[in-house]
Amino acid sequence: MAQQEIKNRKLLLVDDQPELLDMVKGILEEEGYRNIQTASAVKEGLSLWRSWQPELAVLDVMLPDGDGFSLLTQARRFSDIPVLFLTARGEDEDRCRGLGMGADDYMVKPFLPKELTLRIGGLLRRCYKDQPALVRLAACQLDFQRAEVVKGSQRIPLTAKEFAILQALCRNEGKIVTIDQLCQAAWGDNPFGYENSLMAHIRRIREKIETNPSKPVSLITVKGLGYRLNTEEVK
């Protein structure tokens, strides 16, 4: 992944200490990160997580209306972004609890600014790998450079919304991508109310990529959660 693409990722910082929030935000901005939002409580952090759809979150454990563990538990119901705990609580029990609940990393305050930026950069590179220009599915290939579906000798163009939806699915190949995440990918920071439109786009995508759209094998519905894209290994 290009360095600039990493720095464009959306980062959410949640901590109840304004001075620390300002310091961490400043450290990250000095490293080139510009897309940063902050929150100081569980309720505020969860609201931002839902509406703004960050791509990485840095959480404190001790918050005024709960703790970072409960925030992570609630967020994991609709988001699988990388999460780093940055907290004064360094007990082994807390580390194990955080990692066991789905956090990707755990740092204890006080911390070295360079270590923080290295860990955040490492998480972003591992979780958002470069997407190949061609992605093979059971019945076709997706050509992201040309925004087309390649089906034998046919080249079928993708609309902008179809392209955005398929990119989000490919970034998470084999994993469930929630309805909220797909709406955010296609319609931006105000994704609410587009569920029916998303279903219509999914239907048209299946008509382009599947052999039998009524019995899809590549773009699968996960009832009540979202969708999953099954890709084929390139031999």
Short summary:
The chain is of the alpha/beta class. 41% of the residues lie in helices and 21% in strands. The protein is built from nine helices and 14 strands.
N to C succession of SSEs: HEHEHEEEHEHEHEEEEHEHHEE
- The helicity comes to 40-55%
pLDDT under 50 segments (min length 5)?
none
- β-strand percent reads 15-25%
Rg over C-alpha atoms, rounded to the nearest angstrom: 19 Å
Question: Helical segment tally?
Answer: 9
Instruction: State mean pLDDT (0 to 100 scale).
Output: 89
Specify the biggest β-sheet.
Answer: 5 strands, parallel
Morphology call: elongated
GO molecular function, one term: transcription cis-regulatory region binding
Pfam families: Response_reg, Trans_reg_C
Domain Response regulatory: 10-124
GO cellular component, one term: protein-DNA complex
Structural features, described:
- Strands 2-1-3-6-7 form a five-stranded parallel beta sheet, with helices on both faces.
- It has helices at residues 3-7, 18-30, 42-52, 68-75, 92-100, 113-127, 160-171, 179-187, 195-209; strands at 11-14, 36-39, 56-59, 62-63, 66-67, 83-87, 105-108, 134-136, 141-143, 148-151, 154-157, 177-178, 219-222, 226-229.
- The model has no long low-confidence stretch (mean pLDDT 89).
- The two termini are 23 Å apart.
- Helix 3 (42-52) runs parallel beside helix 4 and helix 7 (160-171) crosses helix 9 (195-209).
- By secondary structure, the protein is an alpha/beta fold.
- 41% of the residues lie in helices and 21% in strands.
Fold topology:
Layout: H1 3-7, E1 11-14, H2 18-30, E2 36-39, H3 42-52, E3 56-59, E4 62-63, E5 66-67, H4 68-75, E6 83-87, H5 92-100, E7 105-108, H6 113-127, E8 134-136, E9 141-143, E10 148-151, E11 154-157, H7 160-171, E12 177-178, H8 179-187, H9 195-209, E13 219-222, E14 226-229
Parallel strand pairs: 1-2, 1-3, 3-6, 6-7
Antiparallel strand pairs: 4-5, 8-9, 9-10, 10-11, 12-14, 13-14
GO molecular function: phosphorelay response regulator activity; transcription cis-regulatory region binding
Domain Response regulatory: 10-124
GO cellular component, one term: protein-DNA complex
